[in-house]
Design brief:
Blueprint lengths: L6 H22 L33 E2 L12 E3 L5 E3 L10 E6 L6 H13 L11 E6 L6 H16 L10 E4 L3 H11 L1 E2 L1 E3 L4 E3 L3 E5 L5 E6 L5 H11 L7 H9 L2 E4 L4 E4 L1 H42 L1
Length: 311
């Protein structure tokens, strides 16, 4: 039997391949891949009177993004029960970690940061301990574990309102020595300093989203938090391992991208085109190919009938 290629099937498969290839290229391109313009750096001497100069306590502090870097797992601390723990204990391969650098005797900033985030976490569908973990590391090497224990009790109680109970195993307040604190803050790009005259630490308010394997995924800056942004950041940091099938699908397709300028996730129009391309390819394969195969089988049957009749 001599095989005769069916050009209609070949053209259909070629069209499917083209659609999938185009979708794959679109899938690989995100807004982070596109070049963007930045404001020009101020020239030397552009602020001769120091009008825009930062206060001294705010100088040399901030966050240098280390997205994609991994936390060293064997850095040692003490938890709120004075147990010796390594930071890698909290990267269990299942739940993402929301890490912050605070200290219990902070006059205001730390409490505002943690209280606002705790209130926001009550409004999201994911739950502390069940879906993710909260880790707060004191940047004060003189903080006692008894003080860290008081801080944990405060925020667990605040979070436990409105049917958010039994979450205490998901909150961790750590203390450590100066070298270990400095090591992990350097890895995370977190810059802070001690102001001797005021006897306080100057530091930026930021939460760092870390994957279950210990990879830095996202930074959430500021003191006001949007529940939807936190949900998307947790899905992203969990690498699609938590949430509903819709959340996981959104993660896999890259439907949302983080906008650094607004601090929120935005839906990409390109995602709709990817989904449309994928559905088109499925439709072509699922309908046209069986149709052409049926036509080919029908023609073969007609040919056999003619040969039989002629005999």
């Amino acid at each position: 039997m001599i095989f005769k290629p069916n050009y209609r099937i070949a053209l259909t498969l070629a069209a499917c391949f083209a659609v999938v290839t185009w979708g794959g290229r679109a899938f690989g391109q995100t807004s982070e891949d596109k070049p963007f313009k930045t404001l020009a750096e101020p020239t030397q001497g552009s602020d001769p009177y120091g009008i825009n100069e930062k206060p001294r306590v705010a100088q040399n502090i901030g966050v240098d993004s280390q997205t994609g870097e991994f936390i060293v797992r064997d850095i040692s601390f003490h938890d709120e029960e004075n147990r010796f723990v390594q930071i890698g204990k909290y990267f269990d391969g299942k739940r993402p970690v929301m890490l912050s650098f605070n200290y219990s005797d902070c006059p205001k900033l730390c409490s505002v940061q943690l209280e606002n985030m705790t209130d926001t976490l009550r409004d999201i569908k994911f739950k502390v301990d069940e879906d993710f973990q909260m880790v707060s590391l004191s940047i004060d090497p003189n903080e006692q574990t008894s003080r860290a224990k008081q801080s944990k009790a405060k925020y667990v109680k605040r979070y436990s309102q409105f049917d958010r109970k039994n979450s205490q195993d998901g909150w961790h307040f750590l203390t450590g020595d100066e070298n270990d604190i400095q090591l992990i803050t350097d890895i995370c790009g977190f810059r802070y300093k001690y102001i001797r005259e005021q006897k306080l630490y100057s530091h930026p308010p930021v939460f760092i989203l870390i994957s279950p394997e210990g990879k830095i995924v996202r930074y959430i800056h500021g003191l006001n938090y949007d529940a939807k942004t936190i949900e998307q950041a947790l899905v992203e940091s969990a690498e699609g391992k938590i949430g509903s099938p819709i959340n996981i699908l959104n993660y896999g397709l890259g439907c949302f991208t983080f906008n650094e300028s607004t601090g929120r996730y935005t839906f990409q129009a390109m995602a709709i085109m990817r989904i449309g391309g994928a559905l088109t390819a499925i439709l072509l394969v699922g309908t046209l190919v069986p149709y052409w195969l049926f036509r080919r089988g029908a023609k073969k049957g007609e040919s056999d009938d003619l040969l039989t009749t002629g005999g």
